[in-house]
Structures are given as C-alpha cells and as structure tokens.
Amino acid sequence: MRLDAQNLAPRVSVVPNAVRPIKLRVGPLRFSLDHDEAIDLARQLVAAVDDLANEPPGMA
To answer: What is the CB neighbour count within 10 angstroms for residue 8?
Structure first.
C-alpha cells in the first residue's frame, strides 16, 4: 500500500497561540509544526529543489 498525495495541493495555516502553530495540510493529512520544525522542513525542501536543479539533464 502507498499513500500518494501528488495531486493534492498543500495548504499552510497559522494558529498563533498553539504549541505547534504552523499547520500543514495535504489532503486528509494534517501536520502541526513548531517554528524550528517548520524552518527545518523549509530548508530541506529548498535543498531538494536545488539538488534537482543541479542534476544533469535526464538524471532527475
């Protein structure tokens, strides 16, 4: 079994007074992140995009 959310648009919202105020929703899945977790995820996403951009054509 595999969960594939490639056709679902992610949504980000903020709940300011929550312990984990950053809310990321992808289809039925909801993730709650604190500031550091959100920054880490954002950096990992940027690094993945940079890696893809630096791949030789046809390698991605």
So the answer is: 12
pLDDT mean for each 10 residues of the chain (60 residues):
76 97 92 97 96 79
* pTM of this structure: 0.77
11-14 and 22-26 beta bridge pairing: antiparallel
Identity (one letter) of the amino acid at 15? V
Helix residue ranges per DSSP H, the chain: 35-53
Contacts of 31 (CB under 8 A, 6+ apart): 23, 24, 25
Domain boundaries, given as residue ranges, for the chain: 11-53
CA–CA separation, 9 vs 12, rounded Å?
10
